[in-house]
Fold this protein.
Amino acid sequence: MAAVLESLLREEVSVAAVVRWIARSTRGSEDNPGEAAALSSLRPLRKEFVPFLLNFLREQSSRVLPQGPPTPAKAPGASAALPGRPGGPSRGSRGARSQLFPPTEAPSTAAEAPLARRGGRRRGPGPARERGGRGLEEGVSGENLPGAGGRRLRGSGSPSRPSLTLSDPPNLSNLEEFPPVGSVPPGPTGTKPSRRINPTPVSEERSLSKPKTCFTSPPINCVPNSQPSALDTSPWGLGLPPGCRSLQEEREMLRKERSKQLQQSPTPTCPTPELGSPLPSRAGSLTDEPADPARVSSRQRLELVALVYSSCIAENLVPNLFLELFFVFQLLTARRMVTAKNSDPELSPGVLDSLESPLFQSIHDCVFFAVQVLECHFQVLSNLDKGTLKLLAENERLLCFSPALQGRLRAAYEGSVAKVSLAMPPSAQAVSFQPETDNRANFSSDRAFHTFKKQRDVFYEVLREWEDHHEEPGWDFEKGLGSRIRAMMGQLSAACSHSHFVRLFQKQLLQMCQSPGGAGGTVLGEAPDVLSMLGADKLGRLWRLQERLMAPQSSGGPCPPPTFPGCQGFFRDFILSASSFQFNQHLMDSLSLKIRELNGLALPQHEPSDEDGESDVDWQGERRQFAVVLLSLRLLAKFLGFVAFLPYRGPEPPPTGELQDSILALRSQVPPVLDVRTLLQRGLQARRAVLTVPWLVEFLSFADHVVPLLDYYRDIFILLLRLHRSLVLSQESEAKMCFLNKLLLLAVLGWLFQIPTVPEDLFFLEEGPSDAFEVDTVAPEHGLDAAPVVDQQLLYTCCPYIGELRKLLALWVSGSTGRSGGFMRKITPTTTTGLGAQPSGTSQGLQARLAHAFFHNQPPSLRRTVEFVAERIGSNCVKHIKATLVADLVRQAESLLQEQLVTQGEEGGDPAQLLEILCSQLCPHGAQALALGREFCQRKSPGAVRALLPEETPAAVLSSAENIAVGLATEKACAWLSANITALIRREVKAAVSRTLRAQGPEPAARGERRGCSRACEHHAPLPSHLISEIKDVLSLAVGPRDPDEGVSPEHLEQLLGQLGQTLRCRQFLCPPAEQHLAKCSVDLASLLVADQIPILGPPAQYRLERGQARRLLHMLLSLWKEDFQGPVPLQLLLSPRNVGLLADTRPREWDLLLFLLRELVEKGLMGRMEIEACLGSLHQAQWPGDFAEELATLSNLFLAEPHLPEPQLRTCELVQPNRGTVLAQS
Amino acid sequence: MILTKAQYEEIAQCLVSVPPTRQSLRKLKQRFPSQSQATLLSIFSQEYQKHIKRTHGKHHTSEAIESYYQRYLNGVVKNGAAPVLLDLANEVDYAPSLMARLILERFLQEHEETAPSKSVINSMLRDPSQIPDGVLANQVYQCIVNDCCYGPLVDCIKHAIGHEHEVLLRDLLLEKNLSFLDEDQLRAKGYDKTPDFILQVPVAVEGHIIHWIESKASFGDECSHHAYLHDQFWSYWNRDGISQCCSGWCGTPGLSDSSASASQSAGITGVRKHFLPGILMKCVCK
C-alpha cells in the first residue's frame, strides 16, 4: 500500500492514474503504460489503498491533534485479514466509537480503574495496544492478532509510526509517556483512528470515568438524561439524548469539569516544537501556534497527497464525506504540534524514503494540507449552512494560505440564504379524537370500545407525566411508569384493540416527533408546519435563544450513533417498558403500512420553467411538504427498525463461527418485516432515491450484527454502496440529481457506513461498481431526485452531525481549548423594540396556541382548508402585487428614464448608473407592498374560506377560520414580499431599462414614429410577401435572360405600383425587413424604368415603354417614396454606378427620364441638391466608355445649371409635354 | 386546400434537377394547372433545398471553386453582358444565388487579400452596387433576381410570409374569441423556446386537443415535418402540455378545418398548401 503512495510521491505515477486505479477494477485505457505497469503489480492491494490512505493521514496527524477529538476512520485493517467474518473476534478491536477527547479526559482520580477492565471492555486498539506497541505490555494486552496493527499499519507496514514514538528510548520515569497503570496514556497514543467519536458529555457520570462503550444507553435505573456515551448494559444499546437540562445545572457541571482538568492534565503538549522536548503544559495556558505558508516544509509532497486524498473524496471512495471534511477541518484548526523526536531516522529498517519523514512536520504543513484539500471541495463547502460558511470565510488561516479560496467562500457566504436552525420547537399536542376510526362501530363490543377509551386516557396520562418528570434527575421511566404501562397493555385483550391503540400511538408519535430533531421537552405549543408562521417574528427569536441555550453542544461527533432525542425517547421507552409482543407486532404492521403509503406519495414535481419569482412562493410550499414527508418517513422507519430488530439485539458480542452460521441459516428464513429491497429498487428506478434512501438508512441503522450478512440485506447494502459511489458531486448530471439531494444522500449513507453493526469491510471489500451505476429508470425524466427538494435546513435536520463542522470552527474562533468540549456562546440580548400595534411576544404565542387548539377540536378538513386558502391567497397576493404595484413602478421607471434621457441628451449616461438612480428612487415604494398585501389577504381570504367550508359551519368557527386564514396568508405573503420586493422591483426595472435603452438604441430614425393603418383600413391590401415576389419577377424579367415572348404590360406595372401603395398604407402585415426590401426593389425598378430596360408586352414594334407612361410610373414611385414608405428608401442607389451604368447599354441613350427623376427628387424634397451633386460627382470617378462619360458630364452640368427652385407650373407643363430629345440634342 | 400524398409526389417527381428559375416554375405551372403558383413554388423551393443540401459539399471543394471562378472569368472576358454566372450555375446544377456568393467570395479573396467577412458578403449580396467590380455586380444581381429558392430576396419573402401569417393567425384567434398568449408575452415570462401561440384554454378539434399553435412559412412535407417535430415541437411539448396540436393557418379560415383534415391525410401529416399566400400546416397529436 505504502508502495503506491511511494511511487506517487516519487512522481512515477500521476495522481489521475492512481485515482483511476483505485476507482475502477478494470484499468482504463487512458493509463499510460508505464504507470499501468507500476500499478498493476500492486493490483491485489488495490482495495486496501483507500483505507491505508485514510489511516495514514490519521496517523500522520496524530501529533497535531492530540487535544482534539480523533477523527474516526472506518477502515478495515485487522478485519481485512478475516474477510467474510466481520462479526468475528476482530469486531471488538475496531474500537467502535472512541471517545471524543480521550487523552484529556483521563482524570487522575480514575487512576485506580483497573487496566484489565479497560482493556477488556474496549477491546480496542486502545491504550493497551498502544502500550503494547512499546513493548511494555505486549503480553498483558494480548493484542497480537495477526495484522492487528493493520489499522494503524504498525511494524514494517507503518514506517512513519516508529519515527514518532519508537525513536525514544523508553523513559520509564516519564509519567506522561508511561503513566500509571490505569490511566489513559496521553497524547497521540489516544488518537486511535477508531470508528466513532463519542461526545464529551458534560455529565456527572464523567467523574466515575466509566469506560465508554459504543451504542450504549443508560441502564434502566440510571439517570434518564445521561449522555449516550455513558456505560450501558441494556440490550437496546441506545443512548438517551443529551437532554435539556437547566442552564444552572449545566454551568455547574462545566465548572466542575474545568476544575478537574486544571488539576490533572499531564498532557504531553509542547507548545513550541523548537524546544524539542515535551514540556508539560497546563490546559489553561494553551497557546495557538500561528501557521505560516512560508514555513511549509514539503509543499510538493503535501500537494500530491492532498490531491490524491481529494480525488478519493471526490470519487466517493471514502466511506463518509463529512467525516473526511471533519478531519480536514481539524487539521485546519490544529492548535499546536506535539514535538516529534524523529532525530533517529534509521529506526525501522525497510522504511521507504519519502514516507520516512512524517507528512506533517509542523502546523504549517497541516494547515497547508487542509487548505489544499478544501480548495478541491469548494462546491461542498459552499453548500454548507451560512454559519459554517461565515466561520470558514473568517478563518484567518484560510485567508493566509489561500486568499482565493477565502474570497470564494466569502462570496458564497454573502450569497447564501441557508440559515439553519436545528432547534425546532416540538409539539406535544394530543392526537385529537378521530371520529371516523375511534367510534363504536369499529369495535367488537361496547366493552372493547370502553377499554380503548380508558387506555387512551391512561396513555395521555403517562405521556403527561413523562413530560413533567423526564428531565428531573433521578426519575426513571421504568420505575415511574413501567408498571402502569404494562397494566394498560394487559387490558388490551382483543386483537382489534391493539390495532386501535397502535394507531393512536403512531399518530401521537408523528405528531410529537415530526418536528426536526424533536429535541427538548419544553412545549411551546407550536406545530412545526404552517402554524409556526403565526407570530413567527417574536417566537422565532425566542426559539433561537432557546436553541443556543438548550441545544446539545455536540450531537456526538461527526458520526453519532442512532439515538432517540427528545420526545422520541418516550416512545422508545414506552415500547421497551410495555414489552408486549402483540403490541410490537401491531406496531410493525402499522408502521410498515404507513411507510409504504408515504413512500409512494406522489409529491408534486417541479415544473421546469415556471414563472420565476413568484414560483418561489409555491416552491417553498412543495419543499416543505417534501420535508414533512421525509421526516415522517425517517421517524417511522427508525421505529420500525428499532422494533423489528429488537429481538436480535443484545449486549453480548455477536456470535462467531458455527454459531453464527446456524444463526444465519435461521435468520435467512425469516421474511423481512417490510420489503425494503423492493422499495429501494423501485425508488431508484423511479428516481426517488432522495426520498427512499434517507428513511431506509434510518431503518438499517438499527439492524443487528447479523443482518448485513443476510443475503437479502446484503443486496440492499450493495445497492446503497453503488448508489453512494455513483453520487459524484462534481458531476453535473443534467437533470439527474440536484446537488443538495446528493449531499443529503451522501451524508446519510456515510453515516450508515459508520454504524458499528455495518461491517466495515463492506465498504472497501465490495468490488466497486466499476462502471457507472445505472438503474434502468422507468420513471419520467424528471424524478424527484432532479427537483431541488432538499435545502440546507432539511439536510442539517436529517444529519445534525454535519453541524459538527461548524462547532469545530467555532471552537477555533472562541479560542477555548477544546477540552471542555464547549465553545463560547455569545448571546446578544435583543431588546423588544416597540413594533407598533403588534401584540407582544407572549400574546402571539398565545394566539398561536389558541389557533392550534382551535384546529384540534375541528375536523382535519377544516385545517386543511384554511391552510390551503392561506397558501393560495398568499401566493396570489404576491402575483397581484407584481402585476399592480410593481408594474406601476416599472411604468414610472420608464417615464423617469425618458426624462433622464432627454435631460442628459445623447449620452444618457451609463446604464448601470441609470439603473441605480431609478432603483434608489423607486425601491422605497416597495414598502407599500406590505400594506397592499395585507389588504389583499384581508379582502380575499374570508370569502375563499367561506366558499370552501360547509354551509352549516357555525358562525363562530367560520369567523375564527377566516381570521386564521387571513393571518396565515398575510404572514406568508408579507414574509415573501419583505424579503424579495426590492429585488423584484430591481429586476423588473432593470429589464425595463434595458428594453428602453435598446429601443432608444442604434437606429432612432428607423424606429421613428410608425403610423399604423388608418382606422378604416380593413387590411385587404395585398400581402407584402406577394408584392416582393411580384416585383422580383419584373426585375428578373428586366435583367434577363428572358425568352423572346416574355414581358410585362404597362398596365401590370401600374397595377403593381398601385398595390404597393395599398400595402404600404396598410401596416397590418408589414414588418420592417419587408419594407426595406420593398423600398430597395422599388428603387431598382425606377432605375430600370429610367434606363428603359423593362420589356413591354404588346405589339412587337413597340418593345419599349412610352415616355409618358414611364414618367407616370416614375411619378407613382416618387409619391410612394414620399408618402407611403415609413422607413428609409435607398434613393442614392439611383445614382449608383451600377444603376446609371444600365443607361450605357441602351441605344440610343435617353437621359431625359433621369434628369426628370432627379429634378423631381429635389422638388419633392426626397434628396437634396447637394446630395445629388455629390453622387453625380462620384459617378465621374467610375470607368465608363468614352462617349458615355461625356454624356454624363453634360447631364450633370445641365442639372447643376437649373435654377434652384423652379416654378411648379413649369414642371407641370413639362410633364404634359415631354420635351423629348432635348438632352440628346445637346449631347 | 389539401394535397394528397400522390399529388405531392407527382409534383416532386418533376422537380428532380431542375434549375430554380422563373422558366422552370412556368413549366411546372403548365404541367399542373390545377395547383396555385404559390403551392408549386413552395414545393419546388423545399425540394430544391433538399437537393442543394445533398450536393452542397461538392461545390465547395477548393478545386470546384477554382474551376468555377476560371470559367466565370473566361465567360466575362468573352461577353460581360451575357448571363455567364447564371448559366454556369444552371449548368453545374447549383443555386444561382449560392453560386454568386461563391464567386464573389473568391473574387474578394483575390482582390482584397484578406478573407472577406461574412457580413461584408451578405451586404454585397443584398446590394450588389457595393461590389467593386461592375460586371460582377451585374452578374450577381442577375443571379439573385433569377433565383426563386435562395438569396436575400427569397429570404425576405419567407420572413414576410412568416410574419404575415402570424398576424393572420392572431386575427383568426381573436375572431374566434380564443384566449392566447403570443410569443412575446411568453418570452417575457421566461420561456426560451416558444411556439407562436399558446392557447390559454385548450380547444378540442375533432377529437384532438390543441394546446398551442405554430405557424410555419414553409411547405409541410414529411422531411421538414420530422425535422421541426424533432427540433421544436418536442421542446414545446415538454413545456406546455401532454397533448397538443400544432397547426398552421392554411388559407381557409377556421382552425377546426385545418387540423382535422391534416391529421386525416395519411402518411404525411398535413401536406398543405402553400408557400406564398399559404402556409404549412402540421399537426402533432400525441
The longest helix of chain B spans residues 152-175. Confidence is low (pLDDT under 50) at residues 237-286 of chain B. The two ends of chain B are 24 Å apart (CA to CA). Residues 80 and 135 of chain B are 6 Å apart (CA to CA).
